[in-house]
């Protein structure tokens, strides 16, 4: 999903950049079936919900064999499209390794898949989240550049001790972003498109807030990792997101953010562009048990 913790211990089989051989042949028939089940379910659900570049990018995942994609074949296809490749990692990896991969147009993907009896439960991002959720948009030239720009920004953020602020930008765009498309809202964040439940909730529920994207505001906003988001941010297009990320001078922004309070997930500010003022009924009901 987003980035890991710097205290992770690198397993002995991982290289210094945390990559491991995918060893595609070791996946069992059951594991490939889990991929196929999830793939068929989400591919059916997403038309009309996911942003067009995501739906177009799904083509990159149609490989010569069904089941979990072989990263060698996938990377060859992706490389021809936008110059990105997919590399296998054991799970969450440290921030510096993660940013370095993105800055070099390599997407690290978890080298395991959830079990058949836990299709909707995910403790750590697996290959379905990472590949189905993230790779289609890496086939979009603008989004592909945004991901690289994010990685470069991440490497620069290390010396400012500001990773947790920058991680929110990733969270509210790459993982849980919404986009305006032909006067409609569509989903593009990997955490949403790869989730059977949230790909409905994020668009149809009246519970969450939907607010216009603002870079600084997003970086002040806390997020939750344990359930559906309580606030989504809506961008106008990928070009604008890329441009803002490339043109923002993050050093003074980080200094300014130090002086501003973090915003709880449900906060709505007077200056927000509010598309949905959510009821938060879903979160309140969950909290009430
Ligand atoms: Fe992710």
From TrEMBL:
GO terms for molecular function: phenylalanine 4-monooxygenase activity. It catalyses: (6R)-L-erythro-5,6,7,8-tetrahydrobiopterin + L-phenylalanine + O2 = (4aS,6R)-4a-hydroxy-L-erythro-5,6,7,8-tetrahydrobiopterin + L-tyrosine. Pfam families: Biopterin_H. The keyword Oxidoreductase applies. Keywords: Oxidoreductase. The keyword Oxidoreductase applies. Residues 1-289 form the Biopterin-dependent aromatic amino acid hydroxylase family profile domain. This is Phenylalanine-4-hydroxylase.
């Amino acid at each position: 999903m987003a980035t890991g913790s710097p205290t992770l211990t690198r397993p002995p089989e991982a290289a210094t950049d945390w990559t491991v051989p995918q060893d595609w042949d070791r996946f069992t028939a059951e594991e490939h079936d889990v991929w196929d089940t999830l793939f068929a379910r989400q591919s059916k659900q997403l038309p009309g919900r996911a942003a067009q570049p995501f739906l177009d990018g799904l083509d990159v995942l149609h490989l010569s064999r069904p089941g979990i994609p072989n990263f060698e074949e996938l990377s060859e296809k992706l490389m021809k499209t936008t110059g990105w490749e997919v590399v296998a990692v054991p799970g969450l990896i440290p921030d510096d390794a993660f940013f370095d991969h993105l800055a070099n147009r390599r997407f690290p993907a978890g080298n395991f898949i959830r079990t058949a009896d836990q299709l909707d439960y995910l403790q750590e991002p697996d290959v379905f989240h990472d590949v189905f959720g993230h790779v289609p948009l890496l086939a979009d030239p603008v989004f592909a550049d945004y991901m690289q720009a994010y990685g470069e920004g991440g490497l620069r953020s290390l010396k400012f001790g500001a990773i947790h602020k920058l991680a929110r930008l990733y969270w509210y765009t790459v993982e849980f972003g919404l986009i305006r498309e032909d006067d409609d809202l569509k989903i593009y964040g990997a955490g949403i498109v790869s989730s059977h439940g949230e790909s409905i909730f994020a668009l149809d529920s009246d519970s969450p807030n939907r607010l216009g994207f603002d870079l600084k505001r997003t970086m002040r906003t806390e997020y939750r990792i344990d359930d559906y988001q309580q606030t989504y941010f809506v961008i106008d297009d990928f070009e604008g997101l890329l441009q803002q990320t490339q043109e923002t001078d993050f050093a003074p922004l980080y200094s300014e953010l130090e002086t501003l309070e973090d915003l709880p997930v449900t906060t709505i500010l007077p200056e927000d562009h509010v598309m949905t003022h959510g009821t938060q009924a879903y979160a309140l009901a969950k909290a009430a048990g």
